[in-house]
Amino acid sequence: MQVIKKQSGAAFKLKKGQKLKVIDAEGEQVSDMVLFNAKDRREKLSSGKTMDFEESILISSGNFLWSNRSNKMVEILEDTNGRNDFLLAPCSPETFEVMYDYDGYHPSCFENLYTSLEEFEIQPDDIPTAFNIFMNVQFDEKGKISVDPPLSKAGDYVLFEAKMDLIVALTACSAEDSNNGSFKPIHYEILT
Ligand SMILES: [Zn+2]
């Protein structure tokens, strides 16, 4: 089992057929995930394609995550919590300036994703909308959204199976509102 320390990230390869278990070890902690085709990094995770083909904006067990080239990247085999978000971009330095009026350096998923992915020659501009595991984004009938505390409890996990050879990046999210005001680690495990 691997540990992503609070407010940090990791990137690694996942072969077709391997499984990835992403675990909220302590509860109420979001993990942003992005995926790239290991053989051609221009193919990457697509929120729009996933919601289109899965016919839902809520993505959980039984759903696939799709690429910008309309290929299946992973299948979600298990999801013990069941609430994930695929609407919002990873939190970035600007998130904290624009939305929180924060002055000075603040860690962010965006920075943690692109610095982890540097070794795979993936650039900041390549980062797509992340699949935000355990993130609890609610919306009303008029489309107004709110970021609420995660519903995940300690030990909740999502199990993915790779449908192609992948480069995966994961974070332990750095945004106060997404994690009910405190930052915890994320654990993951690659199962063959
Ligand atoms: Zn974040």
UniProtKB/TrEMBL annotation:
Pfam families named in the record: DUF1989
Residue span(s) of domain DUF1989: 3-167
Designated name of the protein: Urea carboxylase-associated protein
Top-level division of the source organism's lineage: Bacteria
Organism: Salegentibacter salarius
Record PANTHER family: RE64534P
